[in-house]
Design goal:
globular; 10 helices; Glutaredoxin; homodimer; 2 domains
């Protein structure tokens, strides 16, 4: 029994982010899976943990934290090594903005509850949902490719040669893209950084298919 | 001529957030308006400033910052008084999560480019777009009401008795809700905090209708 407990769903992109941050920090934790496909996140048991009814939620230090990026910021303040944000304010702003491009411009539009709304309200079939997903992913990732390729601060990872908050968000997004067969060759810098993440054990530990609640695709 | 220049659109909710943060910090700045309805954000002139083609962008300290919450975090680090985040890590996580609830769960779904996509791809008319807007606003704001009402750390504002990052995001969202005639009486705590924001000159300075590029409704 660990002092940290993660409420997660193996396929949840935001849960993947938190799992990667915990793994990069070398933290162990209890894993509690909630099956979003069955609506477990709307159960009384889960709403008592997070009234918003969303994974991830992290129990730590007597707190229940929610929202993936604020959780990762907390982990980075609480366990400073290795840092997930740069030491300078300009660098932090850059990394937070790269993370926000994914967290505020792509993922909110492309998660399960949104795709379901499109089907329910507008009769969007699988093809229309895939086109919607691809549109928002490509709009922002193409801009991100340009930003990263044109900035000398980009290194093996989004910012320098160590993985951090922006890489965590990019990694989770690129995994999501695979589910919709989006070809990442159109973004050489993003593809290179994704490959660098995949080469690290911490990201492999965070991957959906290695979670206790994973089911075969 | 100031050393800070804000690229903005008067009605943009994310621009309103940055304007409120600048005003709360007592900072003066040059205002540059870009008309999103005319597509000015896709002009070469603007894309040279922000390749993502989104307002706001903030020129400061020789940098061009984008994404509203990372911009506000930068301002808070650079100009610490008055603080927009709590002094303790648990409080910071709470305020960042409240801000992220709006910035990651409501606003991305409800901005202009998304509503236009719904119209273009799915034939969503004004009523269907309003229902979409209301659905995402109500889902998250109802959870936020419950979280704020049930936590003793909530004060005159979202966290204690001074306005901060969460209030800034709430203020901009509540303004947006008005455009779709969403009744805020269903959320008494949120309505009370919004009124407290409206009573402060800094928020009035940030309001859409007081911007240089404002046009009558």
């Amino acid at each position: 029994m660990s002092d940290i407990r993660l409420h997660s769903y193996f396929r949840s992109s935001t849960s993947t982010r938190v799992r990667a941050a915990l793994a990069l920090k070398g933290l162990t934790y209890d894993y509690m899976g909630w099956d979003l496909r069955k609506g477990d996140q709307r159960s009384d048991a889960f709403l008592a943990i997070n009234p918003q009814g969303l994974v991830p939620a992290l129990e730590i230090d007597g707190l229940v934290l929610n929202q993936s990026i604020p959780i990762i910021e907390y982990l980075d303040e609480r366990f400073p090594e290795p840092p997930l944000l740069p030491q300078d304010a300009a660098g932090r702003a850059r990394v937070r903005a790269l993370a926000a491009m994914i967290a505020c411009e792509i993922h909110p539009l492309n998660n399960l509850r949104v795709l379901r709304y499109l089907g329910r309200a507008f009769g969007a079939d699988a093809d229309a949902q895939a086109a919607w997903f691809a549109h928002w992913a490509q709009t922002t990732l193409s801009a991100m490719e340009q930003i990263l390729a044109g900035d000398g601060r980009t290194g093996d990872f989004c910012h320098g040669n160590q993985p951090g908050l922006a890489d965590i968000c990019l990694y989770a997004q690129m995994l999501n893209n695979r589910r919709f067969d989006i070809d990442s060759a159109q973004w050489p810098t993003l593809a290179r950084i994704f490959a660098a993440c995949n080469a690290l054990p911490a990201f492999a530990q965070a991957a959906p298919e290695t979670q206790p609640d994973a089911v075969p695709a």
